[in-house]
Model the fold of this input.
Amino acid sequence: MLTIASKILKKFCSGLALKVLHGEKSNSMNIVVCVKQIPDPAMALTLDDSTKCLVRDDKLIMDDSDSYGVEMALQLAEQAGGGEVTLVSMVPGNQTSGLRTALAMGAAKAILISDEALKGSDALSTAKVLSGAIKRGQPDLVIAATESTDGYTGTLPVQIAELLGWPSVTFAKKISVQGNREIAVQRQTEAGYDEVISPLPAVVTVTAGVVEPRYPSFKGIMAAKNKPIEELKIADLGLDATEVGFAGARQEVVDVKDEQQRSAGEIVVDEGDAHERVVAFLEQLKLI
Amino acid sequence: MTLKRIWVLAESFDNTPIGTTNELLTCARSLAEVVEAVTWNADIASLAPLLGAYGAKKVYNLGDLGSSMPGVVVSQALHQLIQSGNVPDAIFVPSTYDGRDIAGRLSVRIDRPVLTNIVGLFYSADSLITQHTIFGGTKILTARFTGELPGIYVIRAKSFAAEPVQTGSEQEVSQQEVETVEVGELGPTNLAHIESRHVEQRSGPKLEEAPVVVAGGRGLGDAESYGMIEELAKLLNGAPGASRAIVDQGWVPYSYQVGQTGKTVKPVVYIACGISGATQHMVGMKGAKNIIAINKDAEAAIFSIADLGIVGDVKKVLPKLIEAIKSAR
Done:
């Protein structure tokens, strides 16, 4: 008991020391992580016949790509010596199962914009909704995945940054906080990477290489059940039903057809000589 | 009917257009009467004629962006042009890091949606139709913009062949106009800056251009085993590639990655070693003429598209394969 108390005291003191070191301004960092709840990619995905939208009626899970952002946010808040990690998510139904996973990892709370009118929203409308919700909290940093696993549009985080009027750094493979209110990011490029410095507030998108996400602990899972999820309607964000969803989308799916498939060729089970078959194949192509 | 004018964001490296730039110019040429290019961070005297060779009649030059992020500056420049009444019918953007940044910011600035991951484009019933592969390439989805022009089209590499304009043809650019665009005040979005650039060296043919690609995945077991991939690639005059899984593990640099977020390759033969065939990997290599897959798991998705599938341990098959090729010479 005593050791726990002293640990807590130590942590408190180190946090205090940080604050003193950097003057009167607190170093705490409030971070928003955009989390998408998607159908389990391991299950067969289907499209609605009439709307051509991905069917998202079943249980939704947290997009695996978002677990890196959640982990990064938790670590950055801890390094900063305080601050809260808030999740922001949007879904036409009111599913929260995916958000609970991120809460179990350690996020403090979530904001869920859940409105039937959101069905069929394009990325720009989605960015308007999410940035509206983010603005209310005035965070220091917004973290998102580079793209979602089910839609992979890949422009949403930058659209959010532009709507907020903030700088953005996409494809981060490393993030560190420098001094007061500044981040250093290693951003992937075609040739290697750029070292980018950005003041806060900013939007950063993270790749899967940025950090190793933790598994929620049993304690975390139990605690997540009671963490607050604030549910908002689009009207709460001052948005009109005509600006979002199918009504606001200025793009449409024309049709969906089966792609001509490559068919599987010859399968050889290796019994110690399968490499000979590969050699023959390459010889046929005159590569050897 | 065709479109009047298309802008192509002509990304370049070392004053040379990247492959996708030439692909987009070629595609734009087939869809519109006039193709114009937008360039930045390049010596315009060297770059402009190269773009002209692929049909760019006019080049908007933004000059050296210094340490600014291209996404912010280029989107601002295009917004300025559009505000001044210079409105194209469509804007083609390469699906690169900077391309996606530009498309996202521009979309908000001019309040137009974006269609991304485009792998095909054609004109039908008075609109430009986009094609996208979904569900790991098992289905092809077509879409279009329904609102006001211009639509923003983010197009994947290797979706179109790059062909220079034939000399003497109607589309030959005899005189090319270069317009310098002065970018106005940028505000807080431009506060992020590039402190330094790091180039990760690699030898041998470029991954995107190599006739043979030998790629390794998690099935290799450890980073050291990647040496076999490099050796086999070298023996076949090919380039080594990688799945996202091992790039994320830090075994090889990101520039080796093949797939959705990495490079798109279409070699004569692609040899996938210890790669299970995640959707995001397959979209980057399923255009290969021939696919050979070596994987322990007989159920691995990669076998469904392989012309030759070897169910076996890469750590056993690869050393024998390397030896056999060496002795065949």
Summary: Chain B has two domains: 3-190, 207-328. Chain B touches chain A through 98 residues (CB under 8 Å). Chain B has a mean pLDDT of 93. The two ends of chain B are 56 Å apart (CA to CA).
